């Protein structure tokens, strides 16, 4: 955004965040200080509460976060739930003073976090009341909040705690198995890492008792249920923002680790096969030596008993052309065995 102000860059760009929120940003050369930011939110399931196409509390959250630099356009641009008109000339001026720089940076980060400001608005309302050990008025016993297209997670607000339950759903069967393994290890890591002050966290195959009144359709999940218990100390002061962000993006966090683990599993499998190939007595005779390079290409050859013909593409040094070497590799039966991925056990504030 600073570049827009300094160079008068014209923008008309679309992008998607976390596969669910679609953005459209526009800046015109005629008025480079005005930026139009439109958001298309995930399709809400029936159990969630939207007011005017937005989660309840979203308008108030936008005004509180951005103040005078933002105007909410009514109606929004076609195909979007919300269009914000940002007056970039009203950003705190960067005049070299540290305080102005920090104010400007903080506001730009809030603009970049507009997804959390809008979708996390109901969550913020409930957790702010938890900080004062009260329950927000006109709040139901169960609160469903949209976080993915046609999917929601649930809150059970009480004066002394807020129970947050995520039904974990994945379309791909392999992702489901990976996610289940990851979540089980996630729970175990939190128990053994000395995080006694962190929010209690549980994983179960079946819905927790707190959601006894929720219908079966709303609680469909093929990777189990994750439950966090948020206490007043977890939302005190600046901890509130971090807790809202981490809860709002929890499914994306799990999905990221699932995808990373899938790639790691493939690379680990390939490296294992290569090490076994290079260990064969006839590998050197075929001109194949271990150089630490990755496998570029494999092709199955004719079926043979207990063997598989593969082609390994190797690159000669000094820019010479690729050469293909045919070698027989002992067939390695490597069914997917899922090991826990890297775990970030810090998570929510203590």
From TrEMBL:
Keywords: Actin-binding, Cytoplasm, Cytoskeleton. It is found in: Cytoplasm, Cytoskeleton. Its main location: cytoplasm. GO terms for cellular component: Arp2/3 protein complex. It comes from the Eukaryota. One of its GO terms (biological process) is Arp2/3 complex-mediated actin nucleation. It holds the Pfam family P34-Arc. InterPro entries: ARPC2, ARPC2/4. One of its GO terms (molecular function) is structural constituent of cytoskeleton. Component of the Arp2/3 complex. PANTHER family: ACTIN-RELATED PROTEIN 2_3 COMPLEX SUBUNIT 2, ARP2/3 COMPLEX 34 KDA SUBUNIT. Functions as actin-binding component of the Arp2/3 complex which is involved in regulation of actin polymerization and together with an activating nucleation-promoting factor (NPF) mediates the formation of branched actin networks. Belongs to the ARPC2 family. This is Arp2/3 complex 34 kDa subunit. It comes from Gossypium barbadense. The lineage of its organism: Eukaryota, Viridiplantae, Streptophyta, Embryophyta, Tracheophyta.
């Amino acid at each position: 955004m600073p570049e827009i102000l300094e160079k008068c860059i014209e923008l008309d760009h679309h992008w998607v965040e976390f596969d669910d929120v679609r953005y459209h940003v526009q800046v015109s050369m005629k008025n480079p200080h005005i930026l139009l930011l439109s958001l298309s939110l995930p399709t809400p399931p029936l159990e969630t509460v939207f007011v005017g196409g937005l989660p309840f509390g979203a308008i108030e959250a936008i005004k509180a976060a951005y103040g005078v630099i933002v105007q909410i356009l009514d109606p929004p641009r076609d195909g979007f739930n919300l269009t914000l008109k940002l007056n970039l000339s009203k950003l705190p001026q960067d005049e070299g003073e540290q305080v102005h720089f920090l104010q400007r940076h903080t506001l730009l980060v809030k603009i970049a976090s507009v997804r959390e400001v809008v979708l996390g608005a109901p969550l913020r309302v409930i957790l702010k009341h938890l900080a004062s050990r009260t329950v927000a008025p006109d709040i139901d016993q169960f609160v469903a909040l949209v976080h993915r297209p046609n999917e929601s997670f649930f809150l059970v607000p009480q004066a002394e705690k807020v129970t947050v339950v995520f039904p974990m759903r994945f379309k791909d069967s392999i992702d489901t198995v990976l996610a289940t393994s990851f979540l089980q290890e996630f729970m175990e890591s939190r128990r053994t890492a000395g995080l006694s002050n962190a929010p209690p966290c549980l994983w179960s195959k079946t819905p927790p008792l707190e959601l006894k009144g929720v219908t079966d359709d709303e609680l469909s999940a093929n990777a189990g249920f994750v439950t966090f218990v948020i206490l007043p100390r977890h939302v005190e002061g600046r901890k509130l923002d971090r807790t809202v962000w981490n809860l709002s993006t929890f499914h994306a966090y799990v999905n990221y680790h699932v995808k990373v683990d899938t790639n790691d599993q493939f690379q680990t499998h390939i490296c294992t096969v290569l090490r076994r190939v290079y260990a064969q007595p006839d590998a050197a005779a075929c001109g194949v030596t271990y150089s630490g390079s990755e496998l570029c290409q494999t092709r199955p050859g004719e079926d043979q008993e207990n063997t598989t013909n593969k082609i390994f593409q190797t690159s000669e040094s000094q820019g010479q052309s690729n050469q293909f070497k045919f070698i027989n590799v002992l067939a390695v039966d490597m069914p997917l065995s899922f090991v826990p991925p890297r775990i970030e056990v810090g998570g929510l504030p203590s």
